[in-house]
């Protein structure tokens, strides 16, 4: 995989080559560094998906405005006010809609638009913040409200709407802490929205505004981007195709791609996760999907957070593949790669894919 340094000044945290692949203004977590780690992804290993440089925001002058025709009492909330509001702590993953995009190239021959992520635009953190519902209630959200759209304070002003129903779910939060610390600048300081189970682009970093509308909101990021555009997906005007919301079930091995192992008894470990719920089963195949056996799911196994799993493998010298296949609590099982539908921007590649491993 090609990896070039990100442009100078793009990120605040160190993103060394041994921890990350560099894709333009983004960095992808190298999964081998997640082997044997705890449930949470440390902020230092968390992938960064930016649409421009990380903005440096002064929390003391930052404000979050809540406005639009869907609220009775527009608000302007300071950082100190946000910290004083009732808070919750939720453990949830964030995953880019394009995670797995490189597999479209490897299985279907053509590289879609976008960064060549393999598994590494997925990570899980413990988020502390104010339920978005609490903020919307204080703003006097009207019964006629339909869509809620946070906007970021970055140069790209990334914004993407969600339904009122999603905004009011108890785990949709305006977070100000990540894994018990302040959110690092690259991940949204002073506050980011976390929209569990939905494509990562909904989890707006550096949030400055929340707009509430009485009509469906259509902006570039839910009409032209983060929609499925391609031969199998008829347009849904004004969107160019079906609008992505919930992320599918996926799994991956905490190993380099391709991997190398010493011969002998090896604990193979990794993660499985789904935007639809928790994980109910993780299987592995050593013969490219002909036969399957169960891997052992480890606690915790959190809805929209995922789980770790493990199995013991007697690794014999030679060339092998290990294929993982997860099933979520909603009954979705990762399909075969052939079932994936090519789309212009390479979203939604959720198939179970053989991971090449050399045993020496
Ligand atoms: N303001 C803003 N929010 C944003 C983005 C951005 O570029 N600007 N990128 C989005 C995308 S596409 C993803 S996948 C996630 C990535 O979050 P992370 O960088 O903390 O991993 O943030 C989302 N929120
Ligand atoms: Mo993303």
Task: Output the keywords.
single chain, 360 residues, mainly beta, five-stranded antiparallel sheet, 5 helices, binds ligand MTE, binds molybdenum atom
How does this model look, in words?
This protein is mainly β and 360 residues long. Helices cover 8% and strands 34% of the residues. It has five helices and 21 strands. The strands form five sheets. A five-stranded mixed sheet has the order 4-3-12-7-8. Strand 16 (279-285) and strand 17 (293-294) form a beta hairpin. The longest helix has 7 residues, at 102-108. It is globular, with a radius of gyration of 20 Å. The two termini are 22 Å apart. The model has no long low-confidence stretch (mean pLDDT 97). The site of molybdenum atom (MO) has 5 residues, from loops. Ligand MTE is lined by residues 46-51, 94, 96, 152, 154, 156, 158, 187, 200-201, 203-206.
First and last CA, distance: 22 Å
Q: Largest beta sheet, briefly?
A: 5 strands, mixed
**Could you list the spans in which at least 5 consecutive residues all have pLDDT below 50?**
none
Mean pLDDT equals: 97
Instruction: Return Rg in Å.
Output: 20 Å
Specify the structural class: mainly beta
- Spatial strand arrangement across the major sheet: 4-3-12-7-8
Total number of beta strands:
21
Bound molecules: the ligand Nc1nc2c(c(=O)[nH]1)N[C@H]1C(S)=C(S)[C@@H](COP(=O)(O)O)O[C@H]1N2, molybdenum atom
Helical coverage, percent range: under 10%
Classify the beta-strand content into a percent band. Answer: 25-35%
The number of helical elements comes to: 5
